[in-house]
Amino acid sequence: MGKRGSLDGGSSADDVEAPLLLGAGDGERPAAWVRALLAHGYPAVASGPAACAAVCALVDLGGAHRGARNMLAVLAWVFLWWVTGAVPLAVASMAPLFLFPLFGVAGADAVAKAYMDDVISLVLGSFILALAIEHYQIHRRLALNITSLFCGDPVRPPLLLLGITGTTFFLSMWIHNTACTVMMMPVATGILQRLPRGGDGAEETGCQEEEVRRFSKAVVLGVVYASAIGGMATLTGTGVNIILVGMWSTYYPEQEPITFSSWMSFGLPMALIIFFTLWVTLCLMYCTKNTGKALSAYLDRSHLRRELTLLGPMAFAEKMVLAVFGGLIVLWMTRTLTDDIPGWGALFHNNVGDGTVTIMMATLLFIIPSGKNNGERLMDWNKCRKLQWDIILLLGAGFAVADGFSSSGLTDILSDGLRFLKDAPTMVIVPVACIVSAVITEFTSDDATTTLVLPLFAELAKSINVHPALLMISGAVGAQLSYLLPTGSPSNVVGFSSGHITIKDLVVTGMPLKIVGIASLTILLPSLGPHIFGIDSRS
C-alpha cells in the first residue's frame, strides 16, 4: 500500500528525486524541478562555482596578478562549500586538489604535499591517543572528578562552565594549546556522555533536551576557545609566540629580546580579558534559567562521587595510556626551550617536529601490552576505525590555501595595500595589522599564518618607519584569533570532530571573542608596550 501511495502522488523521497531522472507531467514539471533542485541542495552546490566565476569576471588585480585573482576565486568556491555544507566536508576539503592545478595556482604535486606535513601528523597521532583514552574510559574518570567539583548542588551551569574552561585555560598556559585541547576534549565529552542526545517526542522532554543540547555546545566551544586563549598568555602556550620570539631576534637583534616574563606581563592581561568574554558569551548564548533544571536530572554531585568510587583503582592499561600521553606532553614541551638551553630536539639537529613524536608515542600504543588478555595490546587498528579522515583532509586544505596565498602573489598584494599605514597613528596601525592576520588565520593554522605574515610585517615596519613590535606583535596576536572556522587551528579541528558543534556555532560564538581580542590588543599594546617592549610610535 505504501508503494501504491507513492506511485499515486504520495510524499516519498522517491517522488522528489524522480523529476531529475524520469521527468514529470507538463503542468507540474517546473515546480517539480524546483523542488527537486532544492531537495538535493543544488543551489548550495552551485554557489561555489558561481562565486568563483564572479570573482574571475569582476575582480581585476592587473595582468601581472592573474594568479592572485584566481586564488581569490578558488578561495570563494571552497569557502562557500565549507560554510553551506553543499557537499560532504571531506569532498569540499579535497577541492583544492583539482581547483589549484586547473586555475594555475599550484601544481598537482605541490598542492598534494600540503595534505601531509608535520602538523597533520600531530593531529593524526593525537586522534589515535584520544581514541585510546576513550576506549579505556579514562575521560570518564577525569570527567567525574571535574564535574563533581564544579557542578554545584543544585547544578549551576555557569559555575560548571567556569570550572571546565578555567581548568583548560590554566593548563594551556603551560602546555601547547593543541595538546591541551586533545587532553581536555575527552574530559568534556565524558561529561556530555551523561547527557541525552535524542528525543522521545514529549514536549517537556524535548524542551529539556534542547537545553542539554545547547549546554553541550557551550562545553565543547569552551574547551576549544579556552585552550587557544590560555596559550596566548605565555611563550610556551602556543607555537605562534615561539615563532614571534625567533623572528624578532632574527630581524631585530639590536632590540630588547622578548622574554618569558615580558611576554606574560603583556599576554596574561589580554588573555584574561578574552577569557572573561568567553565565559560571559557562553553563559548568555547557551544557558538559560531552565538549563540548571534540565541538567539536574543527569548531574547530581553525590551520585557523581558514588560513581567515581565504583570505578575503583586505575587498571594497568589506563596507567599505560596516561603514561604515554604524559610522556608525549613532556616531549612537546621540551623539544625546544630557549636559545641558551636547547631542547632535546637539538640532539637530532632539530629535524624532528611535534608530529614526529606524536606518531612515535601513538605507535607505542600498538606495542605495549594491555595486561588484560594474552597477546592483547593497548590499541589495534580495529579500534582506530573511528579516525575522522575528513577532518584531516580539512586541515590539509587549510595548508594548501596558505601555500596558495604565497605562490599566487596574493601576499604581495596585501603588503602593498598596507602601505597607507605609513602616516597612520598607532591606534590605527595595531588593529589593521591584527585584522589582516586574523582574517588569514581562519583559512590555515596559526603557525602557518604567523610564518606568512611576520616577515611581511617586519619588512613593512622598516619601509614605513614604524616600531616593528607594533606590527609583529599585532600580527602574532591576530594569528591566534582563529575562532571562526575549523581550518583555523588543530584545536578547532578537535572540537569540530566531536560532533557537538557546527561551523555556524564557531562563527556565532567566535565573532565576539575576535572583536574583543582586537579591541583589547588595540588598547593594551600602545599602553603597556612602551613599558614592556620599549615601543615608540615611530622607530
TrEMBL record:
Q: What is its main location?
A: membrane
Q: Does the keyword Cell membrane apply?
A: no
Q: Name one Pfam family in it.
A: Na_sulph_symp
Question: What InterPro entries does the database record attribute to this sequence?
Answer: SLC13A/DASS
Q: Where are the transmembrane segments?
A: 39-59, 71-89, 119-138, 158-175, 218-251, 263-287, 308-332, 352-368, 389-406, 426-445, 466-485, 515-535
What UniProt keywords apply to this chain's record, in alphabetical order?
A: Membrane, Transmembrane, Transmembrane helix
Question: What's its membrane topology?
Answer: Multi-pass membrane protein
Domain of life per record: Eukaryota
> Which locations, inside or outside the cell, does it occupy?
Membrane
| A GO molecular-function descriptor | malate transmembrane transporter activity
Q: Which CDD domains is this protein grouped with? A: SLC13_permease (cd01115)
This protein's GO CC annotations: plasma membrane
Record bears the keyword Membrane: yes
Q: What is this protein called?
A: Tonoplast dicarboxylate transporter
Q: Which organism is it from?
A: Panicum virgatum (Blackwell switchgrass)
